């Protein structure tokens, strides 16, 4: 069996309009020693046919057993051949130097638990912007992040699924992606790794995160009755005394941000009362203004809030 340097995992479910772009972005990498494992979750569109149309022996397609994106990714990792696994969502794309940058980071920092490149966000109107990072040295720096949780608590996520790679052994050690969640499963993986290992980061823009794509999980507007999986993971780690002192305060703030975001999600789903309960239990120092904003929005009657939100979407399209 020929061992590729890196395995690329792509979950596929009703992403027919986008999967071709994602695969082309992988095949256009400056680094070419890889395999691509596409796991199909029962698409009702042309996505699987698009994958089969690529005449490249490095691309394999298999059908997952079970449901959900976490199951798909975990099963794809099991099938992967390399000892380093990179993830790409079927509606995102890589810049040509993404894998080259990931492997450079690994060569410099073999002690890291995951490796990530910077990403850019393409909005619904087609505008592309850079992610707003905090607590990371200024570009063109690359190296081990000073504090992953502080960066995540103060700015946009420093790591996204389409922009990261992880040694297969570490992925298995932390249990992979949690099963049974539709929200926060990626943050749980990142957080479990960051609690145990340093995180390597490069300012090289390796990813375009497409908010303009269709059928994204982040566009789903359903109430979230339970905490994100990593909130539970983090609280258990704190109670067990397993969090290093320099991570404790940033981790608590990161938990608070996750709960504020859960409140916003419930407001969007018309569950303002539930949002208020979440916010009243949430203590934060860094994101106090965001909490106040959520409390104000929760006071707006749900029918009026949903009407205003619908009108805002029409205006900004």
From TrEMBL:
* Keyword annotations from UniProtKB, A to Z: Transferase
Q: Name the source's superkingdom.
A: Archaea
Domain Glycosyltransferase 2-like as annotated: residue spans: 7-141
Q: Which residues form the signal peptide?
A: none
User: What GO MF terms are annotated?
Assistant: transferase activity
Protein's name according to its UniProt entry: Glycosyl transferase family 2
């Amino acid at each position: 069996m020929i061992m590729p340097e890196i395995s690329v995992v792509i979950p596929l479910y009703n992403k027919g309009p986008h999967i071709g772009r994602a695969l082309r972005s992988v095949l256009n990498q400056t680094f070419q020693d890889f395999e691509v494992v596409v796991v199909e979750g029962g698409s009702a569109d042309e996505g699987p046919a698009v994958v089969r149309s690529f005449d490249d022996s490095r691309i394999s397609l298999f059908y997952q057993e079970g449901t959900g994106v976490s199951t798909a990714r975990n099963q794809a990792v099991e099938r992967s051949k390399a000892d380093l696994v990179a993830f790409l969502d079927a509606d995102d794309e890589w810049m040509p130097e993404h894998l080259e940058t990931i492997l450079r980071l690994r060569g410099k920092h073999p002690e890291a638990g995951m490796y990530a490149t910077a990403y850019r966000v393409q909005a619904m109107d087609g505008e592309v912007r850079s992610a707003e990072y905090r607590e990371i040295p200024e570009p063109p720096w690359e190296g081990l992040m000073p504090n992953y949780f502080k960066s995540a608590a103060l700015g946009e996520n420093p790591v996204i699924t389409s922009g990261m790679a992880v040694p297969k052994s570490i992925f298995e050690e932390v249990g992979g992606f949690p099963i049974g969640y539709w929200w926060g499963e990626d943050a749980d993986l990142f957080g479990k790794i960051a609690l145990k290992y340093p995180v390597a980061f490069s300012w090289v823009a390796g990813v375009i995160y497409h908010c303009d794509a269709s059928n994204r999980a982040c566009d789903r507007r359903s109430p979230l009755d339970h905490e994100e999986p990593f909130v539970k993971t983090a609280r258990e780690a704190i109670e067990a005394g397993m969090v290093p002192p320099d991570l404790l305060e940033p981790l608590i703030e990161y938990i608070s941000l996750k709960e504020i975001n859960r409140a916003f999600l419930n407001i969007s789903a018309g569950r303002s009362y539930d949002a208020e309960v979440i916010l009243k239990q949430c203590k934060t120092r860094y994101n106090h203004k965001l909490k106040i904003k959520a409390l104000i929005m929760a006071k707006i009657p749900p029918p009026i809030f949903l009407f205003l939100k619908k009108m805002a979407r029409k205006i900004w399209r």
